[in-house]
Amino acid sequence: MPAKIAVRDVRKSFPTAANGPLPVIGGLDFEVADSEFVAIVGPSGCGKTTLLNILAGFERPDGGCVAIDGVVRNGPSPKGIVISQQGSVFPWLTVQQNLMFGLNGHANRRALADHYIELVGLKGFEKGYPHELSGGMLKRVEMARALVVKPEILYMDEPLGALDALTGLRMRIELRRILSEERHTCLLVTHNVEEAIHLADRILVLSPRPTRIQASFAVPLRHPRDLASPEAQRLKVAILRELGL
Amino acid sequence: MRKLGQIAGPLAVIGMLIAAWWITVVQSGSVIFPTPWQVVTGTYELVEQGTLLDHIGASLYRVGVGFFLAVALGVPLGLLMGWVAGAFTMLNPIIQILRPISPIAWIPLAILWFGVGDLSPIFLIFLSSIFPIVVQTISGVHTIERQYLRAAQNFGVSRTRLFGRVVIPAVLPQIIIAMRVGLGVAWLVVVAAEMIALRSGLGYLIIDSRNAGNRYDLVIAGMVIIGVTGLFLDSAMRRLEGLKAVRWRYAR
What is the CATH number of the domain that holds A232? Predict the structure, then answer.
């Protein structure tokens, strides 16, 4: 059985006006198993977002390829939904309409939307507009909108980066709870090592540009995880050391 | 109390301007330049004759038709040019060349093509307002934030659904601004457009009052009515900003 996501020698450069192409991703190889949660951490500017965009099909690699279920990917698809830092909940649609957006042609889309609105704790806000919601609630809408189409893969690009620390922590716990109810393959890009330890089964540390995989850590901790435990702390120190801290 | 200040302040400024105008006219002993009161009596004269409403109605009609045509053509054109890169490349140069030509420069051609009836001023008003509408709509499409387009693409929606559910709603606030600007310009050129109008319109009123006996009280009356009507038109357009479909843009 092929890996859920297989990344084979992916390379990417960006053209610059002054110095020719700037290599950002310098050959990446890794696999993600079905239902696995992999976090990718790395120094800022190392091409994490570019990598995620390539995985999700929004950008093409210059070399190498990405295969989903053994099939080379060449564009975005509802099989893998992106949740990004800046958020992309449509401000002109209500919460419910946002969730129904991706369910076109679905038989009972309203019921399905309402189910997921309830799952993320937003019951009562179905008819609300995004500008009437707080940042944390907006993130829940974004998550619910991704989950409602039952994607096999969730690509998360600093999904909680824009939230305050407390809301971010709360959302992590929520996310873990939802993932225990529904199996998804998850790829999380973050600069928050603690967030990665909290959520992921495996953590890949990227090197500075042109980025490669510098180290890989399994997270052998059971959920719910205690980030203050000695194992978690040791892991955090080890990862931070890889990042040069 | 604050509301009172919002009305009383501007009224005081207008009152002071009128006073300064009045004093200046009386002091200079001008026989041709009217006092504010003469403008009022002149306006009343027009009301009694029953021509004032006809003039306003004629101007509103021409601006209405010209502006409507400009929106009906300009918004789809702007959407097309904003969305399809090829259309932008093809059409943008000619639009940028035509845009700076004042509608007044078109008057001879308008007379040649449409004569001196209603069509000529409608054509000139249409010309003046279509360009700001097209340009603003294009920029609205170009500034749709990429994450929305990507999200829509991610959910695998069809192009028609993408256009109807994402592009149009995202650009709608800009279209409303485009319409506000377009209507403002349309009303602005009404005087010039009606220089060639036959026997009606506020522009005609102004030109005719000057030509037929130096009735400067009526000239100024026409100017004031144009200004006040423009204010009403703009505040009517501003009401569109309160529509549910675009409130998200102004809510934060």
Answer: 3.40.50.300
